[in-house]
Write a structure and sequence with these properties.
heterodimer, A: mainly alpha, 45% helix, 0% strand, B: 193 residues, alpha+beta, Alpha-D-Glucose-1,6-Bisphosphate, Chain A, domain 4, seven-stranded antiparallel β-sheet
Chain lengths: 76, 193
């Protein structure tokens, strides 16, 4: 599976493998601790940079603007 | 607006279904999803795993409709999910980012154990499609609705395929472990004299 940033591909592959092992062998079994945190931080910063460079409005659609000052109003 | 919903039962326990869900792509049954990235992920104070992923997909629209809304064929979607291991539920909500001011596709999936059969899992799927201010909007809505319906069965085939792969991997690991133990025993039986 591709990453949105080609430069993040290796980090993504390593993180996905770590996550799948953790999800199966720790999380679903109620064990604490997350050994993937370090690699996730590196992967996450790489991906966020790629998202910003590609101008993908990932966080824009989650905002609730209705009733706030960001709600667009009709021209007066 | 078009609303589509469906239910399906998988012949596998919830744990296996949710494991397969993370490994669903890539698969040969549904090649529309080309890229996935995890943007945020944490376990909250209640022990629920919360993830935010970015999906890169190919639009399932015909060429003339793509020209009409000006899409180049590749789009992005935002997916928020929660896995609650104590209550055994997994919920995923996906919304398109690309052209979301002209068309919105909101999909929701909920996986939970079957009420009476413990080795089965129910999935409830729902999609709401809205097209705004585009000629033939209503036609596009029903087209998208039809393709979601068709893709849902491909998605289930993909899930079954991934679950079988996971089961085979488990057998391989067990075989590997058995082999290691056997060779250890062999070494014990034949000490180097």
């Amino acid at each position: 599976m591709q990453s949105v940033g080609a430069e993040c591909q290796e980090l993504k592959n390593a993180y996905d493998k770590c996550f799948n092992d953790w999800f199966t062998n720790s999380f679903l079994k109620g064990k604490k601790g997350d050994p993937c945190q370090e690699i996730f931080k590196s992967y996450q910063s790489c991906v966020k940079k790629a998202i910003a460079e590609k101008n993908i409005d990932l966080w824009e659609i989650d905002k609730n603007v209705l009733g706030t000052s960001e709600e667009r109003t009709p021209p007066k | 607006m078009r609303i589509w919903s469906a239910e399906h039962i998988f012949d596998n326990p919830w744990e296996l279904v949710v494991r397969a869900q993370w490994r669903k792509y890539p698969n040969k049954f549904n090649q529309a999803v080309e890229g996935i990235d995890v943007v945020d992920r944490h376990v909250d104070s209640k022990g629920v795993l919360r993830s935010h992923r970015l999906l890169s997909t190919r639009w399932g629209l015909p060429n003339w409709a793509i020209k009409l809304i000006g899409a180049d064929g590749v789009g992005h979607a935002s997916e928020h999910s929660q896995v609650d291991p104590a209550n055994k539920t997994m919920e995923m909500k996906t919304r398109n980012i690309t052209f979301c001011n002209m068309i919105t596709i909101d999909e929701k999936l909920v996986y939970s154990p079957h009420a009476t059969e413990k080795n089965k899992t129910c999935v409830k799927q729902e999609a709401v499609i809205n097209v705004y201010g585009v000629p033939l909007g209503s036609w596009i809505e029903s087209y998208v609705c039809d393709s979601i319906s068709k893709n849902a069965s491909k998605g289930r085939e993909a899930m079954d395929h991934v679950m079988n792969t996971i089961k085979q991997e488990t057998v391989q690991i067990q075989k590997g472990a058995k082999h290691t133990i056997e060779s250890m025993n062999l070494n014990f039986e034949r000490p180097n004299l």
